[in-house]
Amino acid sequence: MQGSCTRICRRSCRLSDLAGTFGQPKFTNAAGAKAHKNLPLLRFVYQNDVVVLLPDRIQKRGKKFAHIGLIINLLSGRNYAYGSTQLALQISEGSFGKHFSEISVPDHKMKWYLKNLRSKLGGVKQVSLKDRNKYVIRHKGGGSATGEL
Question: Does residue 98 belong to any structural domain of this protein?
Fold first, then answer.
């Protein structure tokens, strides 16, 4: 797993001292994300993992949760998408409602993250974050999965 993560980070992040998370939920709002924008955090997201879209908002106050840190969206085969801290903040606010039809509960399983990273040991290919859905493989149960599973 470390080899795949290192390969992706060398290609996209160009940072050596990052803390990495897998399937991390949101834990602050846009103001908090902006205040901590320099936190050296790298978030790995497997395809359409539902947990990374939660929580979405505080109902009584109307505040939307947002993400902090760079994003690596692990996609099928050698493919992955990279997003800057600013882009991750922009797309994460209110994202549950925007992406409801794409989410997958099974995509949060760590074994799928690990299998996907293993598939990238031979090399990686960066694709556009806006085109990421072209590289998500759906399995018969309705969730998404890589071809290796």
Answer: yes
